[in-house]
Specification:
Helix content is 57%, strand content 18%. By secondary structure, the protein is an alpha+beta fold. The chain has one domain. A two-stranded antiparallel sheet has the order 1-2.
């Protein structure tokens, strides 16, 4: 599935349905659902095209994040399973991702509303 075209092909309500049926990630499903619901129930000042553009920019911003900045390799825990080494856990700096998304959203807001 090509995730680059997802934002432009789904409505907010379709995206809400997908998020409800998806596993959670760094942002909780409730966070994403609340955001999408607030957009879809808003006062109409944001068009679907604007929402799609914002989602595409967030996706690009997250895609461009360097994994070196997101994970703390020193916290990695491994185990052996036969002849395979498995990564059991690693800490993720979610604040870094939130900051990056915040920069994208702020830039988008300034471009569209100021």
């Amino acid at each position: 599935m090509n995730t680059n075209s997802l934002a432009s092909t789904r409505t907010v309500s379709q995206t809400i349905d997908v998020v409800k049926n998806s596993p959670s990630s760094i942002f909780t499903k409730d966070d994403v659902l609340n955001l999408l619901s607030s957009i879809s129930n808003g006062n109409g000042s944001m068009t679907k095209a604007m929402v799609d553009d914002l989602l595409e920019q967030i996706e690009r911003g997250i895609h461009n994040v360097d994994s070196e900045d997101v994970v703390d390799k020193s916290t990695a825990e491994f185990s052996l399973d036969g002849n395979q080494i498995e990564l059991d856990s690693i800490d993720v700096d979610s604040s870094y991702i939130v900051d990056e998304v915040g920069h994208v959203v702020n830039h988008w807001y300034e471009t569209n509303f100021e």
